[in-house]
Amino acid sequence: MRTGNSVWIPIGFTALYLASAIVVGAAIDRGGGWIALGKPIALSFGIVSALVFWLIYGIVQWCRARPIHGILILTGFLCPIAIATSVYIAASLVQTFHETRTARQLAHSRISNVSDEPLLTANGNPIGVRIRYTVQYDDGLDDLHYAPIAQVGTETPALYFNTLSLVSNRTTPKVTGAYGKGTYEFTEDFVPGFSPRMILFNVPEPCFIWYAPTRSPAQRASREAALDGAPQHFRIVIEPFRYTTRTANAYAYRTFYEGQMREGAKECE
Q1: What is the reported pLDDT for 64?
Q2: Which residue range is the domain that position 152 belongs to?
Q3: Which helix (H) or strand (E) holds 223?
Q4: Average pLDDT by consecutive 10-residue portion of the chain (269 residues)?
Q5: Which of 44, 65, 132, 135 has the fewest other C-beta atoms within 10 Å?
Q6: Is residue 190 helix, strand or coil?
Q7: 250 and 141 in a common domain
Q8: Contact of 183 with 135, CB cutoff 8 Å
Q9: How far apart are CA 139 and CA 105, in angstroms?
């Protein structure tokens, strides 16, 4: 096998691929993100392009005594484009299959037995709302990004406090990796947004979160509206089913406020 003077072509394109990968990868990483993956991905792409081009060069050398330089140079420019196109097509096919499978699994699932009750502490103090519901998966569910989750809010918004915060959730039976075929029971606990961090995040900070109510008349009015409002039925939305209903029971924010006070929460001006 003869190499002649054409070996500079794959060497030059290898250097071009790797240099371009470093520049493009660094530019991607500078664009932000909590994990800098631009350079490793770009370098991997450059290395694959170089390997493929060297393979093509070897085949041409094997088949021809004097390789056509123009064809090799053109191949060098087209090689990364062909690889990128192939990767894009393959990724699109995989994504389409995944999305189709997920849509079919969600279409073959049913939600039922939605109920609500006061969320009680170990001392029996009401501090929020507990939502329970059941989901039947006839075909299972592989993608946990589409796991069900509820949102709870007031029918009459009170500025900053119209949405309750999720503080804990449980699934029975326990899920590891994917939902199998069968029935699952979900329990999710919610508390008002003004709840102290000791309840929201289980940290030793007992102060209610009123967003500096003494500095703004609107915020003071929101606090008073939240605590002095009449009991009301909360709105429940369960995704990804777009299931919407209202709580069977009516709840008052003051009940939760006083329950949290008995648990050690306090006002901190």
Answers
A1: 64
A2: 109-262
A3: helix 217-228
A4: 64 78 69 60 77 78 65 72 72 80 93 97 96 97 93 71 89 93 97 92 88 61 79 94 95 94 89
A5: 65
A6: strand
A7: yes
A8: yes
A9: 5
CA dist 172 and 130 (Å) reads: 15
- 95 and 121 in one domain? no
Last residue of a domain, one of 75, 105, 135: 105
Whole-angstrom CA distances from 179 to 106, 137, 144, 151 are: 11, 8, 8, 21
* Structure tokens that stand for 36 in this block: 């800098």
Tokens representing 261 are 């006070």
The Cα–Cα gap between 158 and 193 comes to: 11
First to last CA, the chain: 85
Helix (H) / strand (E) element for 46: namely: helix 38-63
DSSP H helix total and E strand total for the chain: 6, 7
So what's the pLDDT on residue 202? 87
